[in-house]
Specification:
Distance between the termini: 55 Å
Mean pLDDT: 87
Oligomer: single chain
Largest sheet: 2 strands, antiparallel
Shape: globular
Strand order of the largest sheet: 1-2
Radius of gyration: 19 Å
Length: about 350
């Protein structure tokens, strides 16, 4: 009965997302197009950046549905829930303003810090150190990093949508693995996953619209927050956290693509090109795969494959966390190092085309 109810909810969100996106595509064709110059977008065509609006609407619908299930959960943390809603709302509005008015990077960074601070002060923080201030600082850095990573990864049709969908799907599946289907935020995860799945219809090559900063900033907060809840703070028993190395590697594997792409781009722009890492460019791992002769669809499918492998690695870590040992550290760590090395090498090939 539970699976049937969740399936009906997911299908309803999926259909609703398609209807809203069709409506927005018809009436809001200009939003976000002023930011789309040749050095920012891979595609030369100007397309509306409105996908994030649907994400946020579906998130609110999921929150409303969640409210009706609260009486069945005696451990619901209202402060954390309100903090999550506020942080996601701030992220959404910051992205919406950027799409509409092209705000300066430092203002965007300030809003990202605010999102991280809201989450940390309302109970969604990485529990890694004994000293609480260190946990709060790490959480803010994590939130800012993931928000920027998702934003930067939205550089080619379908890429950010693919990566975000499989990360969210990993959270959904982890709920079943840990046998916590009464998880307070399960419906929100289902709602975001369904809206992303529906967005493939519009964002897969050749795309009709982009998610824009409205979508990437919202998704960045969501992925960072649920990453804290489900991965960073993974528990093998009530009140007992999984080994630190297991949690760190689970995060590294699941978020490998946005983390590797962002760190690679930042490294090149700061140390090689001596320019601002926040300035757009065609120097991402996706672009360099294209420079090797792959078309946009092939690049997207490569990211689908890597995302699936990363998801399987993260879920495998969750399943073996209770009996974690050095072999697991070496095995999963090797995959991350290999992937990082591979994409770093690719991103440093044909570098003369970065500024083309």
């Amino acid at each position: 009965m539970f699976i049937l109810s969740v399936s009906i909810f997911a299908f309803a969100i999926f259909v609703f997302s398609i209807l809203v996106n069709d409506f927005l595509l018809r009436y809001l064709k200009g939003l976000g197009t002023q930011n789309q110059c040749g050095e920012v977008r891979w595609s030369a065509a100007r397309k509306p950046a409105i996908g994030g609006i649907t994400f946020f609407i579906c998130f609110l619908l999921a929150c409303i549905s969640l409210v009706y299930t609260i009486p069945r959960s005696g451990s619901f943390q209202f402060e954390q829930f309100y903090g999550l809603m506020l942080a996601l709302s701030v992220g959404f509005l910051a992205g919406l303003f950027d799409d509409a008015y092209n705000t300066i990077p430092w203002l965007k960074l300030l809003m990202q810090i605010v999102c991280g601070l809201i989450l940390a002060l309302t109970g969604t923080y990485i529990n890694l150190f004994d000293y609480q201030l260190y946990n709060i600082i790490l959480t803010i850095v994590w939130v800012v990093g993931i928000m920027n990573a998702v934003n930067l990864l939205d550089n080619m049709d379908g890429i950010s949508t693919v990566v975000s969908f499989f990360i969210i799907l990993a959270f959904v599946l982890s709920v079943f693995i840990m046998d916590t289907v009464t998880d307070n935020y399960f419906l929100i995860l289902i709602g975001i996953a369904a809206s992303l799945l529906a967005f493939f219809r519009y964002n897969w090559w050749p795309s009709k619209m982009y998610m824009g900063d409205t979508g990437s900033m919202f998704l960045g907060v969501a992925l960072a927050a649920f990453g804290v809840i489900h991965i960073w703070n993974l528990q093998i028993l009530p009140g007992e956290f999984a080994p630190t190395s297991a949690r760190v590697l689970a995060v590294a594997c699941l978020f490998a693509l946005p983390l590797i792409d962002t760190s690679t781009v930042f490294f090149k722009r700061i140390f090689r090109d001596r320019k601002s890492p926040f300035k757009g460019g065609k120097d991402h791992t996706t672009h360099h795969l294209s420079y090797l002769g792959l078309n946009d669809v092939q690049v997207a499918w490569i990211f689908v494959g890597i995302s699936i492998i990363n998801m399987i690695c993260a879920l495998s870590i969750i399943m073996v966390a209770s009996r974690w040992n050095s072999f697991h550290t070496m095995a999963f760590g090797s995959w991350f190092v290999f992937l990082f090395g591979f994409l770093f090498v690719v991103a440093n090939m044909n570098t003369k085309r970065d500024e083309a």
